[in-house]
Amino acid sequence: MKKILILSRFAKEYEPKRLKEEALKLGYEADIVKYGQISFGVYNNKPYIKLPNNLVITDYNYVIPRSSSKNGSSMIAVKNVILQYILELQVPALNQQTFKNYPLLGKIEQGFLMAKSNIPTIDYYSFGSKKGWDIFLQKSNIEFPLIVKGRFGSHGRTVRLVNNIEELKSDAKKYTKDSVLVQPVLPVKQWYRCIVVKNKAGDYEYLGEMRHRQKQKYQHPGFNFIEEKLVKLNDSRMEELKDICIKAATLFDCDYCGIDVLYREDTKQFVISEVNRTAQFKYFEKRTGVNVADKLLSQ
Predict the structure, then answer these.
(1) What's the pLDDT band for 287 if we cut at 50, 70, 90?
(2) Is 209 helix (H, G, I), strand (E, B) or coil?
(3) What's the CA dihedral at 207, 209, 210, 212 to 10 degrees?
(4) Which positions fall inside the ATP-grasp domain (predicted)?
(5) Nearest 5°: phi and psi at 272?
(6) Is residue 196 within a helix (H) or strand (E), and if so which, with residue range?
């Protein structure tokens, strides 16, 4: 019988519960283990990993690692050690190759690599030190408003809309520990959360998209789309959306990812904002009717 291990920051989070529920429907055994319950180390010069409740990692046929961040902090060290350990043991895992190639894949790396591969993304300027901030603040041609983002962060926790030099100087004091991206505020009325998976044959499958209205706080001041209806783009444009998402998933060698794509009202073009390798899918399942959990277990 196939045995699935689901690693999560919260055992009661929607995605781990759905994955376990779907695994049981398929006749599999499944366990959810929180990253915080795992201990590891070296004893007599041999590495070990200890799971709770006497579970043994080599008993599993497949591992699904969910996000390791929690309330702004991260247990990425635990996640990376586990993924490296099971790779050497030849225990397959979801997104195993992408995490091997890119243990950390922040917004800075994503944007640079996508642009290098001619995948449409958002312009940015980046630095990661107080000296970098000092140089940037001395520029005479800074165009406001602009967006300041942390290299990592979910749910907009590290994203700030900056309207003038005073706000920018204030934010410079808050973003001191890691690299940041400074980006233009684009004229965007709607954006899409898209999901791509790799099937058993190794081919990419586009599961669809959810359309969202851009939040007012991120709206370009020269464009007011708040009162306007969202637009349903034609099939040809949606095929473009699908194509760039598959290109991004291919670039980073993802078995599964959620991709946020903005639609620019000035150029009428799509640009990728972010690729998330542990994307949540609660609302995607509810709005599209696609059984994402089953897709992840059918690889």
Answers:
(1) very high
(2) strand
(3) 160
(4) 111-299
(5) -85, 130
(6) strand 188-198
Helix (H, G, I), strand (E, B) or coil at 235: helix
Nearest of 290, 295, 280, 285 to residue 66 by alpha carbon: 280
Q: What is the pLDDT of residues 186-242, one digit of tens each?
A: 999 999 999 999 999 999 999 999 999 998 888 877 777 767 889 899 999 999 999
Strand, coil or helix: what is 108? helix
Q: What is the torsion angle, in degrees rounded to the nearest 10, for the CA atoms of residue 1, residue 56, residue 49 and residue 101?
A: 0
Contact yes or no for 220/188 (Cβ under 8 A)? yes
Q: 184 by DSSP, 3-state: which? A: strand
Q: Are 275 and 121 in contact (CB under 8 A)?
A: no
User: Considering only CA atoms, which of 151, 244, 173 is closest in space to residue 206?
Assistant: 244
Q: What is the pLDDT of residues 111-161, one digit of tens each?
A: 999 999 999 999 999 887 778 888 888 887 899 999 998 777 655 567 888
83 in Cβ contact with 96 (< 8 Å) = yes
Q: pLDDT of 165-180, one tens digit each?
A: 999 988 877 776 567 8
Domains of the chain (ranges; CATH) run 3-93 (3.40.50.20), 112-121+186-297 (3.30.470.20), 125-184 (3.30.1490.20)
CB-CB contact of 186 with 262 (8 Å): yes
CA distance 6 to 208: 24
Listed residue (191, 281, 178, 172) closest to 230, CA to CA: 191
SS3 of residue 274 by DSSP: strand
Cis amide linkage into residue 47, ω under 30° from 0? no
Taking alpha carbons only, the member of 199, 201, 193 closest to residue 285 is 193
Residue 66: C-alpha distances to residues 2, 11, 14, 96 (Å): 19, 11, 11, 12
